Structures are given as structure tokens and as C-alpha cells.
Amino acid sequence: MTAHPGDTGLLAPGWSDSAAASATGDDAFLRALLDAEAALTRAQAATGLAPAEAATAVTAAADAGVFDVRSLAERARTGGNPVIPLVADLTQAVGDTHGPYVHRGATSQDIMDTAMMLVAARTLDPVLADLGRTERALSRLAAEHRGTAMPGRTLTQHAVPTTFGLKAAGWRSLVLDARDRVRAVRESLPAQLGGAAGTLAAFGAYGAGDPAGLPEIYARELGLRAPDLPWHTLRTPIGDLAGCLAFAAGALGKLAVDVLTLSRTEIAEVAEGSGGGSSAMPHKSNPVRSTLIASAARRAPQLAATLYGSMAAEDERPAGAWHAEWEPLRDLLRLVGGAARDAADLAEGLRVRPDAMRAHLDLTDGLIVSERLSAELAPVLGRARAKELLTRLASEGHPLAQAPELADVDLDPTHYTGSAGALTDRALERR
User: Which residue out of 71, 77, 264, 278 is catalytically annotated?
Assistant: First the structure.
């Protein structure tokens, strides 16, 4: 048996075979590193710091298909990052005439950070598309079930009636919050260029003139934002990514855990459109999409914590803090990419069972509207006596409809959903 050259996601069904999987694999990182190197030479050519022929040669040689990613990974141990062996291989591929223009003036972190931003951008684009799919499906559910009454639950118990439309509108609101945060971060992802200690000194040493405008041209070549300053130890872009990704995982996780609860056999108020089977029990149709999303939501905060911890980066270039970011950030991008895909599939296929919701509203023989009864009886009996009466009736287990004190009171739980409809309408106005 031979080892596969890359991570196939065998233990990660949440993100395997997703857009995020292909956008964050070793081959994708290699492509991003090469894109960063080629763009650097083109930017220098645009400012007169390199001949145009060098830019053409480096861009042509920066073909990820001709580089050995496993060899790069093994040789990365020597210098602590994959840029060093990649620069050697790319320089050799370009040839003696233009090879000296490869990576000229840059430091490894310039290329690695820029490649990470490219990978993030290429992963967040499909994430945003899947969040859009999820939002649209939840919008349809909220509108369709605007008046579908169901038990509201607090601390695992029936509380007062609500509507499934309001619940779906709440899920949608969180998805939109995640979309807005991810979109803002996607639009702000910067290139990185500063040289050995963030002064751009080497770029000036290789040519006449002020290299201060080089980062802007470099960023433009890559479709990234121009940085205000080199950010080797100013890790705002990483912190922003950590925050938006962890939030997105949690927002989708709320949808998932609600579906997991509501799809229990004893509740069965919703069901995934196409559940998963069991290796041992033929009757099972497991809520697999929700399970995988919930798993991602539980892992994301710890990954984000590592990225936040790495913001304490010493000097002008850190030892360890920068290196600690690579794997957790990739894991976060993968988890959220997979969760967004699964959430879209979940929302689009979710089956809602209003009959089960109605039956559960009646389980407590009217107690689910005890809040309403307390408010209506208080002016007649007094607040304390009204509460005492309802507490006694609840403890005795008698149907409230049989209590003579409640003979003329409306006990229909579908008539006590408050402003759920109006709140749903208001939520759906958001675009």
C-alpha cells in the first residue's frame, strides 16, 4: 500500500469533496505560492525594477503542475517553511538569464502570507455562494410557515407557542450576519510585501526610485487589497479571518443543533431531506448534514483561539507565532467551507411537519398557554391566586379545559403566538 501524496479527507466528511477541499489542498497552496512569486516579478517589472522578459519568464515557469509538492514539503523542514525550497526550484525552472529576478527583495513571509490570503479568497467565494443558497432556502421556509404554530422550548421544556416561520427567520438572520462578516473580510484581504523587516529596503537597493508604491501594484496583480503597512507582526487580517470563520461556523451550528433536536424520533417536527443510513440499523435515516455542521461548530472556536493567540507576534518577524497559524487557518477554511455547503443542502431539502408541531402543542392540555391564562386571570382573581390556581392544576395533571375557572378562556395555543408573524415579516425585509 502506498501513501497518497495529499490529504484526501478520509476522516473529514464535513469538508471532503467540497469546493473548500480543492481550494485549500497542498496543490492549491502551491499554486497560490507560485501566483504570489509570479505577481511579484510582474509588479517589479511594472515599476522598472525588473525587465519585462523576466516577468514573462517567471510567470510561464510558475506552473504548479511541474513542481513536486511532496519534495517541497520534505525540504521545508530545513528552513521552516515551503517558500525556501520553492524559490530554489522556481529559480532553476526560470533559468540563468531571468532566475535572479525570482523572489528578489522579498522574504519568505511575504510570499507565504500572500498565498494564504489568496487561498482564503478562493475559499470564501464559494462559502459566500453557499451562504446565499442557505439564506434563500430559509427565506422560503419562513414565508411558507409564517403562521405554522409549534412549541417554543426553553431549557429543554415547552415554554409558550411560537411559529416555525419565526424560527426559520431567526436561522436566516444568523446566516445573513455570517454572510456580512465573511463578505467584509473577503473584500479586505491584503497582499503582504515588506521585505526582511518590513521596510522594503531590498527593493530600493535593487533599483532606482522609491519602492513604496510596489505593494499596491503587487496587490493589484493578485486581486487583493493593497496593505497600508507590511503586516508581518500586525496580524489583523488573520484575526479578522479567525473571527468571521468562527462566527460563520457557530451561526450554521445553531441551525444544525435545532434540526438535530427537532428531528429526534420523539419529536419529529422536521427531517432532513435525505438522511444517512446506519451500518447496523436498516430503519435509521440519520440527520447527517446537521451532524457534520454541528461538528464543525464545535471545532471552530478552538482553531480561532490559536489564531488569536498568534497575534502576540514579537519584533518585526516572529518565531513560531506566524508558523502556528497555517494549519488552524486551513482547517477553519475547510470546516466552514464544508459546513456552508452542508447547510445549503440541509435548508433546501428540509422537510417540515406541521401536524407533529400541532400535536405537541396539545401535549400539556393547555399548559403551554399558562402565561396567557395568568395574565387574563390576574385582574379577576389577583396575581397570586391566579398563579396558585394554574400551578395546582398543572401539578394535578387535569386538562385545563375541564377546570370550571377556565370555562370561558381561550386555550387554543395557535392563538397565542404573539407578534411572531410580524417579527417574521420584519426579518424577511432584510436583504
Answer: 278
